[in-house]
Amino acid sequence: MDKFVEVMQKKIQKIYAKSPVALQNALISTYGYYWKNRRLGAMFKKALYDFKSREDYSTKQWEEYQTEQLRALLIHVFKTVPFYTSKYRNAGFSLKDFENFKLSDLPSLPYLEKEELRQFGKSTLLSNNKSKGKFYSSSGSTGTPISVYFSKEFHQYWNAAYELRVRNWAGVNYKMARGMIGGRRILPAANAKAPYFRYNAAEKQTYFSAYHLSEKTTQNYVDGLVKYKVEYLVGYAMSIYILAEFILKLKINAPTLLAVLTSSEKLTSNMRGVISKAFKCKVFDAYSGVEACGLISENDENQLLFSPDTGIMEVVDEHGIAVKNGEIGEIIATGLINFDQPLIRYRIGDRVKISKAQDSTMLKIDEIEGRVEDIIVGKAGQKMVRFHGIFIDIEHLKAAQVIQNSLNAIQINMVVETEFDKKNELIICERLNSQLGEITILFKYLDEIPKEENGKFKAVISKIKNN
User: Is residue 19 part of a domain?
Assistant: First the structure.
């Protein structure tokens, strides 16, 4: 069924691009029914109960739960996942070591690097006993999109975690009408005309374009919220902030929402304030990623908490030593749900600040450092921060960076392997021009993309002032 859907998707995308809005809505809704059935089923309902039953766990109960899950995971990967069998044997571990493994022993295991996930994620990192499933890719905004394997059961279990610890903590649920601003290209052309939203009737979801936000289009976005009676809004933090800023600047009366749920980028206190004022509601931040190996979410008291039943989160300094409460460190993530493509001690590439006062049985976080990207401005005045899909399926591309030098000129810094085919430049150009219109694109090949002080490079940089 999944393979059939993938084949049909490619055909439908071509039809979709040439169809009128009404037919596009129908196509989106048809896929929406498939997507809804995949995420909401018997496992979803069972998992909701499981996650809810653990919310009042004591610190001791959480330790016992994580220890039991970790042992089961390590025994499983040593027996059935070739990548770990080899990696752990070479590190001197045996099956017996994992039968009595403790949480305090976790730092003794080697890291899983992002490059290893990219290289082996579709081969030796998969369990020999994996359930039927499919791969989902990250947005690829940094040029190194990774693919994560989701069985239907895992997908539903993970969706239950999101439902309970993100939506429900914010006072909303999946049955309510929601708006979404994300990476899907619902309007393929950069110069597309209104409306700048499409409707998924299967889930009462209004999907807004993240690539056409401007002063001229803002009223149409608000019209979409009103037309489909949107109750809460989810999506990219910066995109929602840009929309909220335009709403306030233009003094447009946006509908009052129940909540706004942000993700994908760093949410600053200023962004939170602007969004809250525009939509007259509280803003709730969350962090996970397509890897789904740990969830940080905000409760009704605006406390950011890590859910211990989604994974184990180590926060370490540059030497791999656990940081103290009140300090910032790198996240080392071990997922406890996905046994088909397990991610153990995975260097996900993000950083958090642990709260000095730990007054919850769940690990309390002060700040998700996350990714901070500049805003790219199109010739028509549209503002965007994400370039979803530009680098997806570009083989032998290790990393990439988008730099806007002017409204008409973009530079792409790339780190590639020797097998990289320069014909891929044409594919990247086509994808960029579809978002920004016809512009000049310069490709620059580097041995390494310069990093910021935090040890990471910015995926998107704009040299246009006051954007």
Answer: no
Strand intervals (E) in 36-177:
133-137, 147-151
CA distances to 145, 178, 466 from 382, rounded to whole Å, are: 25, 23, 14
Residues comprising the chain, all counted = 467
Average pLDDT, the chain: 90
Q: What is the DSSP string of 7-50?
A: HHHHHHHHHHHTS-HHHHHHHHHHHHHHHHHHHSSHHHHHHHHH
| SS3 assignment, position 180 | strand
Q: Per residue in 359-380, pLDDT tens? A: 899 999 998 876 666 778 877 7
Domain tally, the chain? 2
Range of the domain at 432: 376-462
- The rounded distance, in Å, linking the Cα atoms of 95 and 43 is 30
The stretches of 122-217 forming alpha helices (DSSP H) are 152-162
Q: Is 354 left (phi over 0), alpha (psi -120 to 50) or beta?
A: beta
Do residues 355 and 453 share a domain?
A: no
E strand or H helix at 245: helix 237-249
Those residues whose C-beta lies under 8 Å from the C-beta of residue 28, and which sit 6 or more positions away, are 186, 198, 199, 200, 207
CATH of the domain at 396: 3.30.300.30
Tell me, yes or no, whether 21 lies in a domain. no
Coil, strand or helix at 443: strand
Domain membership flag for residue 218? yes
If you ran DSSP here, which 8-state letter would residue 215 be given?
T
Q: Which two tokens stand for residue 343?
A: 């991610």
- Dihedral in degrees, nearest 10, Cα atoms 211, 212, 213, 218: -150
Residue with structure tokens 């999944």? 2
Nearest-angstrom CA–CA distance, 333 and 156: 20
Tell me the pLDDT tens digit for each residue of 145-165. 688 999 999 999 999 999 999
Bridging pattern class, strands 197-200 and 205-209 = antiparallel
pLDDT of 331 strictly over 80: yes
Q: Six-digit token pair at 145? A: 């999109």
Residue 8 domain-assigned (yes or no):
no
Domain boundary among 344, 373, 402: 373
- Is 372 or 324 the better-scoring residue by pLDDT? 324
